[in-house]
What we know:
This is UPF0434 protein theurythT_06690. By secondary structure, this protein is mainly beta.
Amino acid sequence: MAFDTQLMDILACPVCKGKLDYDKENQELICKFDRLAYPIEKDIPVLLENEARRLTQES
């Protein structure tokens, strides 16, 4: 089973409530505004700020 991309219509960043982008290659949901990447583990998004990875300028 893979991540259900239809969820993208209802998912939002828990910090700013903004739109998230799906990074299929890294299995992450990206908030460009807060520069956070939320992991997707076992096809389930982990939308916890303390579990998010900070994005660097290069990523």
